[in-house]
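As described in the Methods, two query proteins were run sequentially through the folding procedure within a single session, without resetting any intermediate state between them. The first query and its resulting structure tokens are shown here.
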Amino acid sequence: MKLAVRPFHLPGSYLVLELTNRCNLRCRHCARSSVQHAHYARVGDFPRAGVESLLEDLERVRARFDNLILFWLGEPLCHPEFVPIYDAIVSMPGIEEVFQQVEVHTNGTLLDRTIAAGIINRFPVPQRWHISLDAATAGTYQRTKGVDALARVEANVERLLRFRQKGGFPWPRVVVQCIISDRNEREAEAFLAHWQARFRRYAVEPKPLAYHVPATHSGDAVFFRALDCPTAEEQRRQDAVYARVVDRLGLGAPGRDDREVAGDAPCGAGAGDGSSRPCSGFWKSPVIGWDGRLTTCTRDSLFHNLVGNVLETPLSALWFGDTRLSGWRREVSRGDYRSLALCRNCFIPGSHNYTGITGDEIAAAEAASHG
């Protein structure tokens, strides 16, 4: 028995679409660094026709998300049809009514001349590319990424900026990203100064940012991001490193108006220590793997919270009308995670990268779902 599909839109919502789980790097801070990780037991690519069907479905039911993120646990530029897929998305009439923004996260190693020329555009939907370098020196880059490619990636970013400037194209905006940890914290100032100088070659003044890149920021940026860690203990340790760096750079506290939570917030969605609270993932962040499987969280790489498969059932029916997901939402809204083993001891709601949800937002989604 399926509920009627009645989409709701909440601030801070984002749809994650993994175009591929292939990756050409094995970054130390990524699940890809483990050759045993089950997410990579099979590798493949989300079909181009599936992307088109997904967009048509969301447009048909008038769904709306703040962001479409083309990334998860693979490098999106490894997809053999990345450029035509990207073009199909950003050129789709009315796409800006479905997504407030289209975002790509990439390591930049494959951002060659052909791809750079293929992605600059004047379509109406805002677009942002996060290019993660995570180092200011070749040695730190190699230790983090496992390859000696910093100079190549820097050249790739500059080429994109040059092509964009020469053609007078507004998109995509470029965010050079440094994920801060105890391995690279001493390079933060050098990273910022280096990239400010490089952007200025193209008459651009990038904004230094930390904690998150606000949806309202329409320009380029140098972004210092917190590291996602596998354990609560390591998360607390690296969050302290991050807070120290951000304070040193004078980039301020997380933006409460965007519902970010500080690192000293109670950890655990279902920690059983009195801090249990609703997790926004069940309402705000559908995550689609390369094979079409849908879950509620970017940490669910093994699909414990499997909702269904969007290559078999439309996303709108799964995310806005699935009875099992509706049941999970009712439980989670009360801080009850007994039926969700993955979530019982989750510490992510206490991390810097988490976007929360309010009781009023849950009520608004519930009201929309029932007409």
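Immediately afterward, the second query was submitted; its sequence and tokens are:
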Amino acid sequence: MDMWSIRDVRYQVTLACNLSCPHCFAKARQPLPDELSVEEAKSMVLDLKENGMKLLTMTGGEPLCRKDLVLELGSFLNENSIRYRVFTNGILLDEELASKLKERGVSEIQVSIDGLGETHDAFRGMKGAFERAIRAIKAAEGEGIKTAVRLTITQQNHKEVPDIIDFVTGLGVDAFRVRPFVSVGRGSENEKYIPDPEAMREAFSYIEEKRRNLTIPFQLITPSFHFLGKDLPENKADKSFVGSRCVCGKQLCAITPDGWVKPCGYFSVKLGNLREQKFADIWNDNAFLDKMRSIDRLSDTCMNCKYLVYCGGGCRASAYENTGDLCATDPLCPLVSQ
């Protein structure tokens, strides 16, 4: 049996959320009736640490809907020398809470922005959501916490990308992360937000132009299709599959509010529950993970594409959740979705 060390864990603290965003992979709104208790979450952390975990990200839903758990677990993570982050929509984050998180050693707070002003409000379904997000960033920065902003590119906001980049970098954040709308979870019910090929090319052209002069990390998250924004040499001599930079199912996993382990948050596949099994037994002895980890060839469309070496075939979760085939072409790829 091969042994795989986990490094990066995304823990969905709760399925509760104060918003109902159309791109939510978890279809978050109401909490689950049997979400992990604080003590169960602490036991989970120790189990994961034994298996190599270096970073835990508290996400959701909206993690701050369970503020008490976030704070107590944050203290526990800090005491055990495990780096942790909080990914939030910003609605519930104020200076007092940011201060408490700082005291508990949080390494970063990420706030999501999906447009400027009314564009963000419309996407998030709440008037004033944009202003609250900005206040959250300022509150975290005021406490000396590293801050990040995440942007999801949609059909509705792609023309705003240059202005969004200028605005976000002007805030003085420490990192800016971008990915396109992924059609899983609630996203599969809101296809109007999926950017078409022209929108993707336009957005990534803006991104490539802007990122050359940025002084902060600009992270393109899988599937980024960053080759759309620049001319890349065609490697005719080597058509081999080099694999995606995504490490889900290998060094990264997600854990649901009720303790199920998944390859990442975008997969619906549940591998095993930490209330019933030790993490190592789930992670090192699972047929679905074995298949994920042994992929050496994708669809003919991908294998014959000159850009495969750059994108690695896109997102395996997007491919699997939309086609049922781990090796299928990512349906979000703008080169095949025309």
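DSSP finds twelve helices and ten strands in the chain. We note this only descriptively and draw no conclusion about the first query from it.
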